[in-house]
Amino acid sequence: MTVPLPPPNRIYLLRHAESARAEPGQRDFDRPLNEKGYGDAEIIADKAADKGYRPDLLISSTAQRCRDTADAVYRAMGLSLEVRYVDALYNATVDNYIEIVDAQEEEAVMLIGHNPTMEQALEALIGHEAMVSALPGGFPTAGLAVIDFDASATAWRLTDFVVV
Fold first, then answer.
1. Which long-range contacts (CB under 8 A, 24 or more apart) does 5-8 make?
2. What pLDDT score does 1 carry?
3. Domain map of the chain by residue range?
4. Any idea what the Cα angle at residue 112 is, between residues 108 and 116, rounded to 5°?
5. Residue 45 to residues 2, 73, 98, 158: CA-CA distances in angstroms?
6. Between 106 and 5, whose confidence is greater?
7. CB 84 within 8 A of CB 59
8. What HEC string does 77-113 produce?
């Protein structure tokens, strides 16, 4: 796997908020956020907006829980935010996540996706030690990693990790 170089210069990795358990006969793909998840999605989206964290492009998995999370971000960021839903983010590998980011020309891109791939993508970008140091308990639901490219070191750095 090759770590991407800019653009984008900033990558936001947002794990979807907490989802409901599957109802009998319901596919995993169709699980929405639970009540806590809906609230957490709104809170994390508002916190990101308050900190000025605004992507030029939001790319979300098509799974319902990611769409629900993306809706909260869209409401918090304003109606001019471009949103794309990508089937390939559901059950994707870390290589898929990195390739999708690497293919973008925008300055700031947000991915809304799933664990464990979200955590693996963060680790691929900033390295194992930095990831474990920043997230000793793993990548929580509704967690937002803000990663910037450090041109002087030719490396990605975790700038902030926003939680509910």
1. 5/149, 5/154, 6/149, 6/151, 7/104, 7/105, 7/106, 7/107, 8/56, 8/101, 8/104, 8/105, 8/106, 8/107, 8/108, 8/109, 8/149
2. 67
3. 10-162
4. 120
5. 30, 5, 23, 18
6. 106
7. yes
8. HCCCCEEEEEHHHCCCCHHHHHHHHHCCCCCEEEEEE
Instruction: Note whether 55 and 144 are within 8 A (CB).
Output: no
| Beta pairing, strands 144-150 & 108-113 | unpaired
The DSSP 8-state label assigned to residue 62 in this structure reads S
Ramachandran class of 56: left when φ > 0, alpha when ψ lies in -120 to 50, beta otherwise: alpha
Q: Looking up tokens 């902030």, which residue turns up?
A: 160
Tens-digit pLDDT profile for residues 14-54: 999 999 998 888 898 999 999 999 999 999 999 999 999 99
Helices (H) and strands (E) in the chain, counts: 5, 6
**Is the overall model pTM greater than 0.70, yes or no?**
yes
Distance, CA of 73 to CA of 84 (rounded, Å): 13
pLDDT at 80 over 90: no
Mean pLDDT of the chain: 95
Is CATH 3.40.50.2300 what the domain over 10-162 is classified as, yes or no? no
